[in-house]
Structure formats: structure tokens, C-alpha cells
Amino acid sequence: MDLRQLPTSTVLSEHISLCRLDGVDIIRILHPECQAAISLFGGHLLSFQPQGHKDLIWMSEAADFSGKSPIRGGIPVCWPWFGKVASPSHGFARSSVWELESFNDQKSHVTVTLTLHDTPKSRAIWPYRFHNRLHFEFDKTLKVQLTSTNTDQRPWHMSGALHTYLAVGDIMQAKLSGLGNEYLDGLADQQRLPTNGVLQFDDAVDRVYSRAEDTMYLEDPALFRRLRMHNHGHDSAVVWNPWQSGAAGMADMTPDGYTTMLCVESAVAGQSIVLKPGQSHHLSTEIGAE
Predict the structure, then answer these.
(1) What domains are there in the chain, each with its CATH number?
(2) Which residues are responsible for catalysis (predicted)?
(3) Positions marked catalytic
């Protein structure tokens, strides 16, 4: 995605502009430390490219930016549930329009904060009141934090994920470490299986690592770099790649798209979290290149 080619609709500050791509409004950051883009549809990070590196975030060449369906790639916000436990899959936050609450443009970094709250439409899907704040900080690293607050008079349950699609040069050369000693295999009837904490790739993978370390590393020799992911507020790390067979069935992924991506997600995917009225939960991920 060439961010500089996006037509500017509003200049917000020296390094931040509001742009339009097909059917979605995009906050574009062109800063000396990095380039980045966030879609207000979904509160969805589309790109993060620190100075001197290729984009750390993968975006499908066939992604749908109509604003009618979730965007393939980037960092979708899965909330208030993870997976297919209810409809729509992965919740409604990733297909809702978020509001720009604030931004801060500094010489060393940029911050952007979005908000999402309940509406009659959301309460028809999930009958609770809530207020979500999604905070981004951009410099040499990317920090994303989702704060979920119960503004209802009743407790409610939540799960979710920052469903990060990482860009890799060649998935068959990549190696992920820091995964702990066991996982649930979504491709083998949710069997709980042991692992040595390191994963290399030669086929589809859909796993929930319940004992992953807070910090994981993705070795990417094809791009001569190592990505570092540090997560907080999670109970699992979800790792996913659909491989050739899965990509072939996706209208919004090119047939070879799986070769340059890997999802490594900061997730609440074990037991759901209960928030009482007034309580909040923070889920975050920090990503950098070495």
C-alpha cells in the first residue's frame, strides 16, 4: 500500500492526514520515524513501516475496502468475542465505524486514539452497553492497546484478539519462538498437544498457545530481520496461516498471499473475562523490527 498516493481529504497536523480509500476513511501518518495507516472502519491498523524497514504489517492485495465487510490483513479488532462462538464471527468491532477521539503529533512519535460505544445496532447483536478505546502509538515500534469498559448496569463476558497479520518475506523460511509448551490444534479437533516452543511452517496452521511467553520472536531471513512481539492482557497467543488450500477459498486473498503472511495474535481465547459495571480490561501488543 503506497500511503503517499492516497488522496488527502483533511490535514489534521504536520504528519497526520485524513484520507479516503474506496469506501473507508483512513488516518494516514507520514512521520520521520515511520509511516502508518488506520481505517476508521473496524478501528483497523492497515500499515506500519518504521524508517529503514519494509512494512511490518501484511495487507492482502485483494482486500475489500468497501466498508461492507471486514478487511483482510492489518490488525483487525476481534471483540466482544473471538472465533465463531456467535455471529458475526470474531464479533462486530471489526466491522463497525470507530470515531477519532484524539491525536498527538510530536517530533519523536505520534499517538492516535479511537473510540467505539454501544448503539441500538450493536445492542441488537450483543445486548450490553460498553465503551472501547483503541490507542495507537507510533515511533520506531508500534504499540496498540484496546481498553474495554463495561458501562452497563450488569456484568458481561468478553473475549477477543488483536488479530495481527505480520508480513514475512517467505513463510517457509520463517521461524516463530516463545510459544510455550502446549497448544490447542484447531485443525485437529482442538487436541491439546505438546511443543518445544518453536514453530516452522510447511502447511496450514491454526493454533492457540495457552502458555506462550509475553514476548515472542519471528525470524524472517528472507527480509533479513527479526520481529519482536510483546503482548499484555492476553491469555493466549493465536497463530494462523491458511496455506495454499485455505487461501484458494478466500475471495479477499490472492492464491499466493499465504506465502508472505503470518498471524500472531494477542488474544483472550481461553476463558472469557467477566467485567462488572465500571470495570475495564486492557489488551495490548507491541511490535518492532530488529
Answers:
(1) 3-289 (2.70.98.10)
(2) 163, 265
(3) 163, 265
